[in-house]
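[Protein data]
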Amino acid sequence: MTFLLTSLVIVLLPGAGTVYTVAAALARGARAGLLAAFASTLGIVPHLLAAITGLAALLHASGVAYNVVKYAGVAYLLYLAWATWRDTGALKLDGAPSQAGFAKVIGNGIAVNLLNPKLTVFFVAFLPQFVPAGPGSTAHMLALSGVFMLMTFVVFALYAVLAGALRDRVLASDRIMTAVRRCFAACFALLAGKLAVEPR
């Protein structure tokens, strides 16, 4: 129960994945938002694999390795902020979303969480507390990680559906759309700043 409650709080807290999912749903509709939610969840898998193979422990122990991933994430969030402000990023409108547009949504969604070192720390510092030592520890960790990823997808999917439902109202006014775009650009920039100053 402690694991479930703590994981739910972590997932519910607005982060880069949440912001990107909502932005994709507003720009391209609920389907794109769901794809962004799935992609953001998929971006968790490398952190899980790193934790199981021991790479996450190295990342956690090495300040240099951690900072490389951290500042790559900061740079990517700043890129999303700039692209969104310029109307070429997460909130770029597609009259009829194409396969290429959806592929871009998936790629960006994966990258947003892939370049978040806090997820690796989660799998190193938090998750092992709930994994009993013994032969079945890897399977237990995989099971808990699966639960965490499912919670992530469900919460992000809800955000996507809600944002998709509001899409027509937002698109009805160029002024509102511009304000929303700039708000999301600011959110990406703030998340980049937050990640940059956070200690390990």
The mean pLDDT is 79. The first helix runs from residue 2 to 12. The CA atoms of residues 63 and 126 lie 19 Å apart. The chain has one domain: 16-130+160-197.
